[in-house]
Amino acid sequence: MNKKIYLSIAYILLSISLFAQTPSHYYIQIHTNKGDALLKLYNETPKHRDNFMKLAKEGYFDSLLFHRVIENFMIQGGDPDSRFAADRQELGNGGPEYKIPSEIQPQLIHKKGTIGAARDDNPEKKSSGSQFYFVQGRVFTNAGLDSLEQFRLKGAKLSDLQRSTYTTIGGTPHLDGNYTVFGELLNGVDMIDAVAKVKTDDRDRPLENVRMSMHLLTKREAINYERVQNGLEPKLGFFTKLFDSLKSPYYTLP
């Protein structure tokens, strides 16, 4: 075979191989002055996934506060009014004009380290366009879950998944079925614990400002993260960087 033809074919095959790769999820690196964490957004909740990804990509969350913190429960942020808020200013009402339709899934529960969408008391359980919370919660005994079923859940029974999760990892089981859970931290869960320890006022606002910034992993960063998780070396070579430079650094999931 002619050497030029062989090289052309090899070039085409390499190009197809590189461009065909698409990460399985969206990932967001979260930075705070109390630690960093990596968030994976669930594909089972595509409306929440795509909305949060878009806002993070646009820098919407950068410099916002965790404006509501309750230890052993959750830490909440995403109110754009918090960016330039005065000390002790009441927060929690800001956000886009739109709401996101509920995507509550029985298998996506409020275990420690998950992210849920905040909402008001609307009967359709639609979510805020930007406000969210990270679950801290606590670990329960089976007796504690029995009590929860009887009194707080009014006799409703927890699933085997819920019981096994809340007696080991912990979380906030009484929120299940009422709020959309749409992702989880893959590392840096101790960031939640650190934020949850800050002192708060009578409105649960931290007396010490805890700000956040978010970075949506690029296609290459996400691919390399998934490669490392599968025991493979990340692709960082010259040709990888060359071909990556020819396309958008971001990607779209179905």
CATH homolog superfamily: Cyclophilin-like
Cα Rg: 21 Å
Terminal CA distance: 40 Å
Fraction in beta strands: 15-25%
The helix fraction, in percent, is 25-40%
- CATH names the topology as Cyclophilin
State the shape. Answer: globular
Residue ranges: pLDDT <50 for 5 or more in a row? none
Largest sheet: 8 strands, antiparallel
Tally the structural domains. 1
Which H/E pattern describes the elements? HEEHEEEEEEHHEHEHH
Second CATH tier, the architecture: Beta Barrel
Average pLDDT: 94
Number of helices: 7
Entry summary:
Belongs to the cyclophilin-type PPIase family. The protein is 29% helix and 19% strand.
Structural features:
alpha+beta, Cyclophilin, 8-stranded antiparallel beta sheet, two-stranded antiparallel ribbon, 19% strand
